[in-house]
Amino acid sequence: MKNVLYLVLVLVTATAFVPAQNRDQSAADGILRLDESRFAAMTRGDLAELNKILADDLVYTHSSGLVEGKKEFIASLQSGNLKYVSIQNEEKKARIYGTVALVNGRAKVTISARGQEQSFVLRYLDVYAKRDGKWQMVAWQSTRLP
């Protein structure tokens, strides 16, 4: 009888964690889709979509070391001084920690900066925060690879 009770306790405990893992994976998949939407909006120049995805307190650190807030980043896209021609993710992974999500990735990026086209490969860290039930990007940090 003791063994049966022990087995039931083990099974109940083990199955209690499955929904949480599924929830975490579902949330991570959602973050990856949101990040792809952001990249697509950047290449389309869809400022309305970016305004929804980017948090007002965004800290955007370009691979050049330039640090911008949301207003400066959007203004640079709006002016045409910066245009994202293409962004191709080569790898990415999302991890959820409560109301914070981290995305690590590698991407091939082609931009036009003040009319000069450049292509490079980046490693990046993207940070999202869940506020009022909605995920928004609060930080970006990227490094150019040789």
Domain count, please report it: 1
- Overall pLDDT: 88
In total, the number of strands is 6
Can you summarize the main beta sheet? 6 strands, mixed
Strand order of the largest sheet: 2-1-6-5-4-3
The CATH architecture name reads Roll
Low-confidence runs: 3-20
Radius of gyration computed on alpha carbons = 20 Å
Helical proportion? Answer: 40-55%
SS element count, helices: 3
Helix-strand string: HHEEHEEEE
Roughly how many Å apart are the termini?
64 Å
Class by helix and strand content? Answer: alpha+beta
CATH class: Alpha Beta
Described by the principal axes of the CA atoms, the overall outline is: globular
Q: What portion of residues belong to β-strands?
A: over 45%
List keywords for this structure.
146 residues, alpha+beta, Nuclear Transport Factor 2, Chain: A, 3 helices
Descriptive account of the structure:
This protein is an alpha+beta fold and 146 residues long. The chain has a single domain (2-144), classed as Roll (Nuclear Transport Factor 2, Chain: A). The protein has three helices and six strands, in the order H-H-E-E-H-E-E-E-E. A hairpin with a 5-residue loop joins strand 1 and strand 2. The longest helix is centred in the first third of the chain and has 43 residues, at 2-44. The radius of gyration is 20 Å and the shape is globular. It starts with a helix and ends with a strand. 14% of the residues are buried. Mean pLDDT is 88; it is low at 3-20.
